[in-house]
Design goal:
Elements lengths: L1 H24 L45
Length: about 70
């Protein structure tokens, strides 16, 4: 029980006295993000995989199980 109390006091000391000193050293700069590119060309939405055939649906457990077939 005393170990927990000592740990709580130590953490309280670090949070209250040490952390604000570290926060004063931090410097932040404001950045502006560019707009994302338009969804044209290869980025255009498509349904190319909509009619894809699922192979080995119940035969494989995961990607590592492909070793069984080699």
């Amino acid at each position: 029980m005393y170990k927990i109390a000592i740990l709580a006091v130590a953490l309280g000391y670090l949070i209250h006295y040490q952390m604000p000193k570290e926060w004063e050293k931090l410097k932040f700069e404001i950045i502006e993000l560019k707009a994302p590119p338009a969804h044209t060309g290869p980025l255009q939405k498509n349904d190319a995989l909509e009619n894809a055939e699922i192979l080995f649906k119940n035969d494989m457990i995961g990607p590592e199980s492909i070793i069984q077939f080699m």
